[in-house]
Write a structure and sequence with these properties.
Blueprint lengths: L3 E2 L6 H5 L1 H18 L5 H24 L7 E12 L7 E5 L11 E9 L8 E11 L3 E9 L8 E7 L3 E10 L6 E9 L5 E12 L13
Antiparallel strand pairs: 1-2, 2-4, 2-10, 3-4, 4-5, 5-6, 6-7, 7-8, 8-9, 9-10
């Protein structure tokens, strides 16, 4: 039930330092034949080191102020409470089917509470808001909107087929979960006549807001 975010998989800033080094090496190589004809080797080397220090200092200073973006991993198990009947139902048919036998064409809207345990008294972590429509299978499109201290206001954008069990794709995200991608394995647990819980095993990667050289998030 707890989220686990790994250390950053990669950071763009680490690659930026390679640029100045390559530039200095290229300049020194290109200029060497000319300057060695008019300057002794020790004097030439002294000037190369002096110019290099100025170039490296200026470029590293510039690159360190650029935003960096790191990719994080999240593994989390949550539970969507799906209530189909009663006064507390959180899904409703918006468009009737064109075929009552196959239910083809039916569209159902939903606002499922997403909990940290498969019981009614569990903490609400998010709401899964969207639609599922019968198009041969129940095709689902959701925004999982998080609430609370950790990811408040951030979202996962989710699509896929909804059967008793299966897998959805995380195709995007917003807020702290920007640029998210991954999967959600899902299956029904604790079913009753009026409702059931759908276990959501989330495995995703996302890019949190960029930070500058002082580790302050860029707005």
């Amino acid at each position: 039930m707890a989220a686990a975010a790994s250390a950053a998989v990669f950071c763009g800033a680490a690659m930026a330092a390679l640029g100045p080094v390559a530039l200095v090496a290229a300049l020194a190589t290109a200029a060497a034949p000319f300057f060695l004809t008019i300057l002794p080797w020790p004097v030439f080397l002294k000037y190369v080191l002096l110019v290099s220090s100025f170039i490296l200092g200026a470029m590293v200073s510039l690159s360190s102020s650029c935003p960096t973006r790191c990719e994080m991993e999240i593994v989390w198990t949550l539970y969507a409470r799906q209530i189909g009947n009663g006064v507390n139902r959180n899904q409703e048919q918006a468009v009737p089917p064109v075929n009552n036998i196959t239910q083809f064409g039916a569209i159902v809207v939903n606002n499922w509470a997403v909990l940290d345990a498969p019981v009614p008294t569990a903490n609400i972590v998010a709401h899964a808001r969207g639609t599922h429509m019968m198009a041969g299978d129940w095709f689902t499109s959701l925004s999982i909107v998080f609430e609370g201290a950790r990811f408040n206001g951030s979202t996962f954008q989710v699509m896929g087929i909804t059967d008793a069990q299966g897998q959805w794709a995380i195709v995007g995200g917003t807020g702290e979960l920007a640029r998210a991608d991954g999967t959600i394995k899902h299956k029904i647990v604790n079913p009753t006549k009026d409702e059931n819980y759908r276990q959501l095993d989330i495995h995703a990667f996302y890019s949190p807001p960029a930070v500058n050289a002082n580790f302050i998030a860029d707005e």
